[in-house]
Design goal:
The protein is built from ten helices and 27 strands. By secondary structure, the chain is an alpha+beta fold.
């Protein structure tokens, strides 16, 4: 929980006084709020720059509908929402307590008896969710709050009803690496059995304090989830057997939640468990402002006003009115390498679209809507081919630590990256696997004229989705390459498949000043081409119409760098 930032955060959202920050994600911010009558709520707000993204809005609206419909002892109830006009937000009841991830990180693995009680309680929660015809699709330690009343499931941003159509793209699978079932990774077959797989992986984490399928690059973790055994080393025999049953590769072999409850054979409530009770000390303190009488809370000042009478917004007490159509207006193409995340109640809502693994190791990108990652750090030179995945290095192994950032980088070899507008992908895979929470965006004023990027220019940005303390500096430079190679005067030649490095941005540390702060560059203003003592200004987009390539590169020296993300856009 963080203090509000005066010039960034509103004092009010609708009728709710805003008291503190609870968390941030790729799609927005979650605040602690208080109703006029004094009830504490968690308010999730979509950030301005993606309010017109059709898939993001559809996912956000579906989350509100899902939370409204799925009511029970294991979910936080929806209290209010505004989903018709920007700013879009929803308010759920505030649930105090650490996440399972935080509890294990701070106090270590749980005793076997505690794990059994947690196993049974979460299985009962899943059974309740499934009874509403909904699959959660992203159960993991970050999405379980350990409240004094029992565990609470959060993050229904990618939950899916039996009649819903998928919001992820063809070939992309929802979930988080290490907790996503093999059938989801391989063929996007999402069902109740996939939630059971995630339940087994979540309890494995609680029982061992380790990632259930190891750490490292995303593809390596997912490969082990498909082909390897879940980590139960050191776990009591009976508990380990139930974990392995839930994590069976064949979904038909996994027990149903009701069977899990029977096999846990608990004889007392989880909230009576001594270890569980000790976790209460990890809950964040509510700020003193929340304890003041309602009439003492601020009533004026900057904020998000309640919807006007002509735009009543969402009324959670009414029955669903049918699917909500996404806006027709297109939006900035904000792309997420691994996660697009919405902060959830006391945590981070994750909606992860993971590239389906293919034998050819192609460089198709994952994008989606999401998440909390595992926190694995960048692994330079990590192979993503299936043959190398089983022996992936631990997170951060062998990572070089730069002595200081160069200002720019220089070309040392032909650059073969090329973005295809027809395929909407680059021809080469990245040379290095990026941090699991690396996010990037590419927006052009010509492609999206209603946005705040002027025509004839492109805005390119990147950041880390969530704070990850203790990381060494990580320097990034962005290359923007026109379709054709240029001569010494900067004029396009007839040579296509440009193998020049392109125009480069200055090198910046991704983690400074704030890891979650977006670092933006505008093309052509912030880009130059440098070699030796020569500097060439970036050419206008109109000078070379066609497919432009954007490559993000990890920099360790002026002539030592590796590609981590490749994207592109059409110009002219």
């Amino acid at each position: 929980m963080e203090a509000l930032r005066p010039r960034q955060d509103p004092e009010r959202i609708g009728t709710y006084a805003v008291l503190a920050r609870l968390g941030a994600g790729g799609m927005g911010m979650v605040y602690l709020g208080r109703s006029p009558g004094g009830r504490l709520v968690a308010i999730k707000v979509i950030k301005d720059e993606i309010t017109d993204h059709p898939e993001a809005l559809a996912r956000f609206r579906r989350e509100a509908e899902t939370v409204r419909a799925v009511r029970g002892a294991y979910t936080a109830n929806l209290i209010d929402a505004s989903l018709e006009t920007a700013p879009y937000w929803l308010a759920t009841e505030y649930v105090a307590g650490p996440t399972l991830s935080q509890a294990v990180r701070e106090q270590g693995a749980f005793p076997a008896d505690t794990c059994r009680r947690l196993f049974a309680a979460l299985a009962e929660g899943l059974a309740s969710v499934h009874a509403y015809g909904v699959t959660h699709r992203d159960l993991k330690p970050q999405n379980v709050i350990l409240s004094p009343q029992g565990p609470q499931l959060i993050d229904f941003g990618i939950a899916k009803g039996a009649t819903d159509t998928a919001l992820t793209q063809t070939g992309l699978a929802p979930g988080t690496p290490g907790f996503t079932a093999p059938e989801v990774l391989m063929s996007n077959q999402v069902g109740a059995a996939a939630d059971v797989f995630a339940l087994g992986a979540t309890i494995a984490f609680a029982a061992t304090g380790r990632a259930p399928f190891g750490s490292g690059p995303m593809d390596a973790v997912s490969y082990r989830a498909v082909h390897g055994d879940i980590d139960t080393e050191g776990v009591e025999t009976g508990l380990a057997g139930l974990i392995r049953a839930c994590a069976a590769k064949d979904p038909a072999e996994r027990p149903a939640p009701a069977e899990v409850i029977v096999r846990c054979a608990v004889s007392s409530a989880l909230v009576e468990d001594p270890h569980y009770q000790s976790l209460a000390s990890l809950a964040e303190e509510v700020p003193a402002t929340a304890l003041r009488a309602p009439h003492e809370l601020p009533t004026q000042g900057p904020g998000y006003a309640a919807p006007a009478p002509s735009h009543p917004g969402y009324v959670p007490t009414l029955a669903p009115q049918g699917p909500t159509a996404a806006p027709a207006r297109r939006s900035p193409r904000t792309l997420w390498l691994v996660t697009i995340a919405v902060a959830a109640v006391l945590g981070v809502t994750a909606a992860v679209a993971l590239r389906a693994m293919r034998d050819d190791g192609g460089g198709g990108r994952a994008q989606g809507g999401g998440a909390g990652g595992s926190g694995a750090v960048l692994t330079p030179g990590a192979s993503t081919s299936p043959g190398a995945m089983g022996s992936a290095q631990p997170a951060g192994a062998g990572k070089p630590t730069p002595q200081g950032p160069p200002q720019f980088i220089e070309q040392t070899a032909p650059s073969g990256d090329f973005w295809s507008g027809l395929a909407h992908r680059c021809n080469l895979p990245p040379e290095e696997t990026a941090h699991l929470q690396f996010q990037y965006s590419v927006t052009t004023g010509d492609e999206y004229p209603d946005d705040d990027v002027p025509p004839g220019k492109a805005r390119i940005g990147y950041r880390l989705k969530d704070e990850d303390p203790g990381l060494d500096p990580y320097y990034v430079s962005v290359a923007v390459k026109p379709p054709h190679e240029l001569d010494a005067q900067g004029r396009p030649t007839a040579r296509g498949n440009n193998r020049q490095l392109g125009f480069m941005s200055k090198v910046t540390n991704m983690y400074a000043p704030g890891q979650t702060d977006w670092k933006y560059f505008t093309y052509p203003d912030d880009f130059t081409y440098r070699t030796g003592d020569k500097t060439l200004a970036a050419i206008p987009l109109t000078r070379d119409p066609g497919e432009w390539t954007v490559t993000y590169r990890h920099v360790t020296a002026v002539k030592d760098y590796k590609s981590i993300v490749c994207d592109g856009f059409m110009a002219g």
